[in-house]
Amino acid sequence: MIYFVISFVSLIIGIFIGKYTAASKSSMAKELRDTKEELATLKAKLKHHFSENVVLFKQLDDSYQKLFKQFGDTVDDISESIKDSNVRQEGTLERLTDASSQSDKEHSVQQPKDYQV
Hints:
The protein contains one helix and no strands. With about 120 residues, the protein is an all-alpha fold.
């Protein structure tokens, strides 16, 4: 009879251990599914983030190309304006120099003959 009681108690203990292990496995399986879903969501967000970055970098590259083209065009325009201005200034300077030298000749004071070398 003692064997019967020991067997019965062992059976009861085995059932409780089995249920606890099964419950633990099902909670672990549920946690694994949740973790996989979270990982899939994060991967999708990361993919979306990088695709948006590609678009933004392309727009940034286009903007920089437009900016450098505008700088180049402006530099060309300014350099042509400066060249034209320099040519006009040189012509004016030559005329002023010629006029100044003629004015000096007209207004020059004659030194006495004994001071001339």
